[in-house]
Amino acid sequence: MTTLSRKKNPRRKVVHKNYRKIRRICRKNKFIFSHRKAHRAIRFAEQHIRHVKGALAGKPFKVEKWERRIIRRIFGWLNRKNLTRIVREVYIEIPRKNGKSFLGSFFGLYLLFADQEQGAEVVSAAADTEQAALVYDVAKQIVLNNNQLNKLARTYKRSMVVYRSASKYMVLSADAFTKHGKNLSGIIFDELHAQPNRELVDVLTTSTSARTQPLTVYLTTAGYDRNSICWEKHEYARKILDGTQEDFRFYPVIFAADREDDWTKEETWFKANPNLGISKSLDYMRAECEKAKKEPAYENTFKRLELNIWTEQDIRWMPMSSWDTCGAAVTLEEFAGRECFGGLDLATKEDMTCLSLVFPEKIQDPNSPTGSQIGYAILPFYFLPEEAIYRKPIYRTFRDRKEVIITPGPIVDYQFIEHKIKQINEIVNIKEIAFDRWNATQVSINLANNEGMEMFPFGQGFGSMSSPTKELMALVLAKRIRHGGNRVLRWNASNVTVEQNAAGDLKPSKGKSTDKIDGIVATIMGLDRAMRRDTAESIYSEREMIVLD
Q1: Mean pLDDT of all residues in the chain?
Q2: Which of 130, 366, 400, 437 sits 20 to 30 Å CA-CA off 61?
Q3: What phi, psi does 418 have (nearest 5°)?
């Protein structure tokens, strides 16, 4: 790779746009910009803050150009009438190792020592106490290493107090119900994406109402939960950056690669990481990128933490680019009379059900001793009760494309599904159907008794699911599978999050996955039965056994 020089760095387009917009909004509202106030904040950072870790420990904190612009605009724009700050909320979304915690420590210390707020109350907060303490601990070490600040403050494990101004800086635990009654002037929220709900955010932000110029700073990397308070703030920030929302009190800063960017390119890394080459090394990014290339499950982690891209789930199990290369057509008619193995995932009666058929087939492989290998074709059938169509917008899309079979009534009609399976079995030879023993007992009994099908109860734990789960991934990466580009199955695949135990076993997690994964679960069960049955011809049917003396 060619190292990108800092002068040609293509990053910060979004932030530059934001700077212009906030300046335009402020001038429109006749606010004033105080260079003295802005420079005072910069001077505090450069004179009093020193690095406390790594090779730079003990050296003065150099405010980078991108940090300087952020700080100046937060502390420089004032209300003309009472000369108070106009910015009350700051949302900074940035990849890891770009000095986020150090920047948070600056905000905490400035609001404590230099904001001229009598009786200031500043807190570091996060989803758990240990995370909240990360910013505070850096701030504490900065104070202990600075004679001037250390003389003014008394530091403790989870708090520091400036007696001259009756001000304090504290670490808060995650229990929201204990935070009522505070009178906060500054809030530093670290890793907002990890907040399980909005309760702590609401409790703390409403506690600032009595202050004349409170400041709440949200520091976070990208997340994956679209129902979170972080996603809400992210979308609000995006609207301000895009010009569809105007709010001079909310200052958004987002450093991120775009989804269409090539995540393996260094120019993309520089675009998302303002401190790449400073606090974050290029060698580190290269190593992490190579890891993401080799380990598909790590790709989403790399994109989210290193490039600040909101991903589809916490740890994507299936690399969708590899999945899409296996989209060769599959039809029921091409396998007429052929053996196959099914997986039946019956969800709740009010939602989606899937029968996935797995057909073993030979595929050409010049590197194999026989010139071929065993591959698999996947053909899923989805069933959805007609009243469930309106539960999710995507269900209506699947219905309009005729990609799901609609069953009459408000719940899944199991008799309808049994009849459809019988019709399919008249075309192909379903040797065996694996089913979740907790959900499909009656259906399995009916199919076994009425249709003479061989039904296999299939557990959903690590012992049953791990081997076929890993095999499905291996088949996709080796392009030894084809799924016909089925869009419902692709949606299921993109939703899957896997759980892993101490032994390294894997299984799809319906609870942790972002949405429905029925088709993948059914495919894994069907693949397991296909793998266990002797469907492949032995190599010795084509040549004699070789005996070694």
Answers
A1: 85
A2: 130
A3: -60, -40
- Give, to the nearest 10 degrees, the angle between helix 393-400 and helix 487-495: 150
Closest CA to 92 of 181, 18, 42: 18
What are the boundaries of each domain within the chain? 14-254, 266-311, 323-532
Asked, colleague to colleague, whether 14-254 and 323-532 share their fold, the answer is: no
Rounded-to-integer distance, Cα 543 and Cα 549, Å? 18
Q: Which amino acid is at 387?
A: E
For residue 415, which amino acid is it? Answer: Q
Write the pLDDT tens digit of every residue in 1-60.
223 334 444 444 444 455 566 667 777 777 889 999 999 999 999 988 887 776 677 778
DSSP state at residue 438: T
Q: Over the stretch 176-220, which tens digit does the pLDDT of each residue have?
A: 556 665 889 999 999 999 888 888 899 899 999 889 999 999 999
Q: Which residues of 502-541 are buried (b: 16+ CB within 10 A; e: fewer)?
A: eeebbbbbbeebbebbbbbbbbbbbbbbbbeeebeeeeee
Percent of the chain with pLDDT over 90: 49
Contact 479, 377 (CB under 8 A): no
Predicted confidence band at 76 (pLDDT cuts at 50, 70, 90)?
very high
Output the pLDDT for position 101: 85
User: For residues 357 and 526, is the Cβ–Cβ distance under 8 A?
Assistant: yes
Q: What is the CATH number of domain 323-532?
A: 3.30.420.240
What pLDDT is attached to residue 538? 39
Start-end of H helices in 81-226? 100-113, 129-144, 147-152, 199-205
Secondary structure string (H, E, C) spanning 296-358 = HHHHHHHHHHHHCCCCCCCCECCCHHHHHCCCCCCCCHHHCCCEEEEEEEECCCCCCEEEEEE
Q: What dihedral angle (degrees, nearest 10) is formed by the CA atoms of 539, 466, 222, 6?
A: -40
Average pLDDT value for residue range 68-86: 91
Contact predicate 75/85, CB 8 Å: yes
Amino acid, single-letter form, for residue 2: T
The one-letter code for the residue type at 291 is K
**CA–CA dist 475, 497 (Å, integer):** 18
Are 303 and 314 a contacting pair, CB within 8 Å? no
**For 8-47, b where at least 16 C-beta lie within 10 A, e where not — what string?**
eeebbebbeebeebbeebbeeeebeebeebbebbbebbee
Helix (H, G, I), strand (E, B) or coil at 168: strand
